[in-house]
Task: inverse folding
């Protein structure tokens, strides 16, 4: 049986075909149903089951390539209510329509119909299910899924009219099959066929744009645009389209063009849109057009196997919004916190997810940062070629000791992996490491051999033979170790930071600061990676703020200045004092909260 035939059987007869799996496979919230259970679960609206049934019957590859992952009715209803709540004045105005530019099986359109029906009942206004349907506009590339959406909305109209007190309406609906007032559903690409979509809207003002557009990450072969579509998108959106901009972000951009001046936009997005470099243009443009008024942050469990969130743009309050409320939960029921608008920029909206994940909200109560770390430090890292160039030159060292710790032999440079770097210390020679599919005890390169090799890959290594700080690639907190004599080479993906306007102690103090880790975790939260650890990059380190107050920073640097040789350890008590000084230097309003969070990491 085809997916559409199964949907038709359920929509018309209220029962599933006998050859389908149990309803526990169709609806996520059910567990352990009998395989022969053909009737919908008690209390489940048939209109809410058509989309999941259709998705279930599609092949996995088809779902992934088309981004077919439908939204739960509860989440759609919660987001529609959130979007409506931030609109100033009348939430839905005469003559307006609601648009879902990638409507799929119609979950958001059904949720909108429910909301408008309930609002009409609350306000005592006279309306009909058909009248509400006529205010809904949906678009999708898949003509079959539009059939499912139309069936879901038709079934909603019958079921809502079947509520107590509407028997007469039910009789009319059943006698005629469906109301003559129907939604406008059009088969088109809302991104590259704006003229077709405009005709479907018909000149009506768009009060709301809601939905769950497809997530088509451009790093994945199965979801990547072909050359023709990429060209069409670039022609329409211009500089906002990067090589790896997710399609969902472009729907957000298009929505801000389509919505009325006082309207609202709420579209589910992958978390990558919060912080990805190729979505920066989208973030900048949409917030120029509409204020970010609220956000919902999901907590896993989404059908697309990605972490998601949804902005609510618009509302246009009389006074500028100073803080953005963040909601969570499968029905948008949880209040997770408030994020200052100043914490959001085109570089990253990761602070929204940081609030949802319990990260401290940083507010500076005095002064401004003295600059950016990248202004006084040069950060660099090797790539694949540099890694293998060092592997060809590597050899085991004959160790000597100085003051009870391993000493790099004269004429050699130590090779250091991320695993050897702990906060404030490099454990080369005291801890083994894996390199080139084997274990090494104390790997080095001969400086003479390195000097004789004029390849570009070794030129990178030679530039590391200066006083610097080595930073591990992915850890729970930033882990940085000093190399005050320039005796080590960090192996890919270790990052080297060479100070050019501050001392090594000042650099190490900034990297040891709890505020630096918090900043990176907040940014990584936006890309969905913050929970696993701090995934540093040269750009992310360069973007870190310098402290606000010079005095505590100088004091912290002084504590570290005498412990900057490779392998020097920093006592735990000293590191703790450095952490406290650097939080004090940052000028934040809740230093104890930041320190408590950092220590729990």
Result:
């Amino acid at each position: 049986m085809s997916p559409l035939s199964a949907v038709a059987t359920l929509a018309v007869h209220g029962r599933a075909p006998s050859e389908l799996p149990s309803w526990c496979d169709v609806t996520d919230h059910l567990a352990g149903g009998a395989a022969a259970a053909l009737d919908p679960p008690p209390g489940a609206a048939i209109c809410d089951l058509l989309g999941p049934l259709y998705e279930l019957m599609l092949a996995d590859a088809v779902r992934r390539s088309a981004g077919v992952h439908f939204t739960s009715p509860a989440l759609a209803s919660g987001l529609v209510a959130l979007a409506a709540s931030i609109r100033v004045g009348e939430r839905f105005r005469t003559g307006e329509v609601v648009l879902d530019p990638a409507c799929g099986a119609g979950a958001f359109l059904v949720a909108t119909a429910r909301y408008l029906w309930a609002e009409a009942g609350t306000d005592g206004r006279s309306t009909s299910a058909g009248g509400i349907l006529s205010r809904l506009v949906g678009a999708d590339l898949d003509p079959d899924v539009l059939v499912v959406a139309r069936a879901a909305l038709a079934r909603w109209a019958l079921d809502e009219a079947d509520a107590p007190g509407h028997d007469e309406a039910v009789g009319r609906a059943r006698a005629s099959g469906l109301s003559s007032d129907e939604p406008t559903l059009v088969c088109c690409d809302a991104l590259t066929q704006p003229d077709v979509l405009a005709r479907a809207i018909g000149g009506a003002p768009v009060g709301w744009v809601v939905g769950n557009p497809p997530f088509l990450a451009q790093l994945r072969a199965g979801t990547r645009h072909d050359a023709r579509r990429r060209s069409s998108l670039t022609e329409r959106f211009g500089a906002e389209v990067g090589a790896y901009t997710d399609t969902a972000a472009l729907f957000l951009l298009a929505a801000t063009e389509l919505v009325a001046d006082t309207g609202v936009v709420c579209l589910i997005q992958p978390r990558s849109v919060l912080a990805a470099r190729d979505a920066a243009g989208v973030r900048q443009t949409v917030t120029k057009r509409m204020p970010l008024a609220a956000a919902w942050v999901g907590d896993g469990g989404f059908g697309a196997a990605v972490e998601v969130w949804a902005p609510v743009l618009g509302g246009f309050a009389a006074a500028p919004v100073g803080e953005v409320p963040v909601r969570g939960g499968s029905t948008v029921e949880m209040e997770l916190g408030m994020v200052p608008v100043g914490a959001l920029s085109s570089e990253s909206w990761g602070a929204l997810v940081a609030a949802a994940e319990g990260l401290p909200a940083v507010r500076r109560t005095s002064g401004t940062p003295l600059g950016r770390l990248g202004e006084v430090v040069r950060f660099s890292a090797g790539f694949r070629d540099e890694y293998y160039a060092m592997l060809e030159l590597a050899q085991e060292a004959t160790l000597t000791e100085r003051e009870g710790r391993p000493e790099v032999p004269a004429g050699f440079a130590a090779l250091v992996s991320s695993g050897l770097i702990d906060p404030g210390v490099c454990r080369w020679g005291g801890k083994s490491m894996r390199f080139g599919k084997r274990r090494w005890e104390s790997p080095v390169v001969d400086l003479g051999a390195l000097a004789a090799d004029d390849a570009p890959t070794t030129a990178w290594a030679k530039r590391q033979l200066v006083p610097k700080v080595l930073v591990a690639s992915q850890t729970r907190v930033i882990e940085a170790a000093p190399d005050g004599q320039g005796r080590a080479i960090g192996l890919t993906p270790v990052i080297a930071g060479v100070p050019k306007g501050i001392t090594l102690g000042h650099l190490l103090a900034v990297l040891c600061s709890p505020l630096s880790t918090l900043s990176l975790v907040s940014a990584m939260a936006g890309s969905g990676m913050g929970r696993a650890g701090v995934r540093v990059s040269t750009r992310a380190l360069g973007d870190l703020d310098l402290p606000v107050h010079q005095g505590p920073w100088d004091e912290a640097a002084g504590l570290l200045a005498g412990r900057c040789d490779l392998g020097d350890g920093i006592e735990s008590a000293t590191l703790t004092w450095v952490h406290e000084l650097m939080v004090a230097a940052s000028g934040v309003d809740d230093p104890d909260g930041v320190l408590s969070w950092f220590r729990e990491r």
